[in-house]
Amino acid sequence: MAEQALILLQEYSDFVLKDGGPPVRHGTPADNLKFAHFRLPQDISDLFPYINRVAASASYFPKLPFIRFVLDGFWCGLHSDYGVCASFADRQEALDFMERLLNFLNELYSRRNQLEPNYQGWHPVPALHIFKLLPQTNCRACGYPTCLAFAAALSRQQTLPEHCPGFCQPILAQAVYPVMDNQGNLVSTVTLEFDPGRFNPAVGQSPADRLGIKASSGGCPITPLTSREREVLRMVAQGATNLEIAAQLELSHHTIKSHIINIFNKLGVKDRTRAAVWAVRHNLV
Predict the structure, then answer these.
(1) Helix axis angle, 253-267 relative to 272-281, nearest 10°?
(2) Does the predicted model carry a pTM greater than 0.70?
(3) Domain residues of the chain, as ranges?
């Protein structure tokens, strides 16, 4: 992104507030919703992989390009040079949020060299396709009332396959590796496929095994992580510091430190790198 981007992100144009649409914030009547439409004077799509790294509930569509995410409780959808945000009670609330959005983008741009961009695009699988992989017993061991509810949550990346004790085992796994140039920019990717059933520890070890990560035979820690610990681990794997995690989750620094100690103990690891490898291996990021 050119240096001029720092200037353009301080302004926007063609701001329009429109009524209607599905509820975005819980408790907001649909007939009172207002959506803010606006345009930016230059392409900001180079920022999308960084937004994808740090923003809550981010879904990145690199081919469009488009990214949607949540900021301060509001939904945002950004194309290369225009966007839509929702939902607002009135014009003043929308204008106040626009200032926070631009500050967020400016701040993200200023520290982009300190962040690892996340180029992973979102490719949702229909819930009914996932439902076919489940035992369909509605046992509720996953924490959801029905198997279909679990499938819908998994489709939206709100849970993980290992939360279902009867989830179908994979016959093929893929790993996507980045090809970078000398400046650290993504040039292309290489996808390797693996047959989990043919993996032989005597021939080779996984990266997690080489790093000494201990897990049960199913690849999960013997003592399961809580939902909060999984949330913290996901942010650790994304490169967030304890202070950043505490601010994001609105918890104290000491509470986050305690969570991380518990995570390390359950996974049998000694540092954040090994914990991050486990998180990536188990699709937490």
Answers:
(1) 70
(2) no
(3) 5-114, 206-285
Per-residue tokens: 36: 């803010």
SS3 track for the chain = CCCCHHHHCCCCEEEEEEECCCCCCCCCCHHHCEEEEEECCCCCHHHHHHHHHHCEEEEEECCCCEEEEEECCEEEEEECCEEEEECCCCHHHHHHHHHHHHHHHHHHHHCHHHCCCCCCCCCCCCHHHHHCCCCCCCCCCCCCCCHHHHHHHHHCCCCCHHHCCCCCCCCCEEEEEEEECCCCCEEEEEEEEECHHHCCCCCCCCHHHHCCCCCCCCCCCCCCCCHHHHHHHHHHHCCCCHHHHHHHHCCCHHHHHHHHHHHHHHHCCCCHHHHHHHHHHCCCC
Tokens representing residue 48 in the block: 């999308």
pLDDT tens, position by position, for the chain (285 residues)? 444 444 445 688 899 998 765 444 444 444 567 899 999 988 899 999 999 999 988 889 888 899 999 898 888 999 999 999 988 888 999 999 999 999 999 899 888 888 888 888 877 788 888 898 888 888 888 888 899 999 888 887 678 888 888 887 777 776 766 677 776 666 666 777 777 666 544 334 444 444 444 443 334 554 678 888 888 998 888 888 888 898 888 888 888 988 888 888 888 788 888 888 888 777 776
Q: Give the amino acid at 251.
A: L
Pick the CATH number of 206-285 from 1.10.3720.10, 3.40.630.30, 1.10.10.10, 3.30.70.360: 1.10.10.10
